[in-house]
Write a structure and sequence with these properties.
This protein is of the alpha/beta class. It contains 10 helices and 11 strands. It has a 9-stranded mixed β-sheet. Strands 9-10 form a two-stranded antiparallel ribbon. Helix 2 runs parallel beside helix 4. The radius of gyration is 23 Å and the shape is globular. It binds manganese (II) ion (MN).
């Protein structure tokens, strides 16, 4: 089994080392992770500058550091290593519960795997003061035994409480939060801000947050399709738009010219137009 291990805390995080060490019991491990911390980068990909992929010494593990985001690491890692079976991301220093799905780089690495057709698992735990992951390793082992040997789930978010009782299935907590902004000043007296989040509602039973608040390891199967099926069915029933015309005029069968043009419009700009070309010595005979 080929196991690509990524994270968002950076390649030198104790969490990724613990995960890679346990994962090595299950297959061949390659670590590909950001060279510096990329927490809260979400699913950003680096499109306006080139990336590096450098071999790195990491406790005898095969490892590469990338000067990019967690999603970049999975893209480059699976480009350099064919037929990756699973991407494990973490163990993050800090929970990724509920709304974290939107800004977590840890989760983004697992989601990037799913987008590339590879199984993805995100793993997170409370930041440990002493950075000691040894106590967590038996639980990481148990989660991997189950997810890698018994389950076929494509995308799973795992959160470990500090002292787990065991494993439970959960759904995503969707409670809202206050974006709390804390102002401060820089040494020049200019305004600076910290942004943090504060949950404002009670925890819903059966959710990821509910589970870890009760010392259970939370396993949440996720999917990439964010379509609100209920709202869609309701909208279609209440207020049909131009679907009847669309059904009449849209050709079925091979991809029409319009679809081809949409795909061209979606493609990123060629690198030559994104980055100013390096000036070449002018040809004296040109003017
Ligand atoms: Mn992180």
């Amino acid at each position: 089994m080929r196991i690509l291990v990524a994270n968002d805390d950076g390649i030198y995080s104790p969490g990724i080392l613990a995960l890679a060490e346990v994962a090595s019991e299950f297959g061949t491990v390659r670590v590909v992770a950001p060279d510096v911390e990329q927490s809260s980068m979400g699913h950003a990909v680096t499109a306006s500058r080139p990336l590096s992929y450098r071999v790195t010494k990491l406790h005898g593990l095969e490892a590469y550091r990338v000067n990019g985001t967690p999603a970049d690491c999975v893209a480059l890692g699976s480009y350099h290593w064919e037929r990756v079976d699973v991407v494990l991301s973490g163990v993050n220093l800090g929970y990724n519960l509920g709304n974290s799905i939107w800004h977590s780089g840890t989760l983004a690495a697992a989601k990037q795997a799913a987008l590339l057709g590879i199984r993805g698992v995100a793993l997170s735990a409370p930041a440990r003061g002493d950075h000691d992951f040894d106590a967590l390793k038996p639980w990481i082992r148990r989660v991997l035994e189950f997810l890698l040997h018994e389950s076929k789930l494509k995308l799973v978010n795992v959160n470990f409480p500090r002292e787990p009782h065991g494993l439970v299935w959960t759904r995503v907590s969707v409670r809202h939060y206050d974006g709390r902004v804390v102002p401060m000043k820089d040494p020049m007296g200019r305004e600076l801000y910290w942004f943090t989040v504060k949950p404002i509602e009670e925890t819903e039973e059966g959710t990821d947050r509910w589970a870890v608040e009760r010392d259970w390891i939370s396993l949440t199967p996720l999917r990439l399709d964010l379509t609100d099926e209920t709202a869609l069915a309701d909208a279609r029933a209440r207020r049909p738009l131009d679907e009847s015309i669309a059904a009449r005029v849209s050709p079925v069968g091979p991809m029409p010219e319009a679809a081809r043009s949409v795909r061209e419009d979606e493609a990123p700009a060629p690198i030559s137009s994104a980055i100013p070309s390096i000036a070449t010595p002018s040809d004296p005979s040109a003017d």
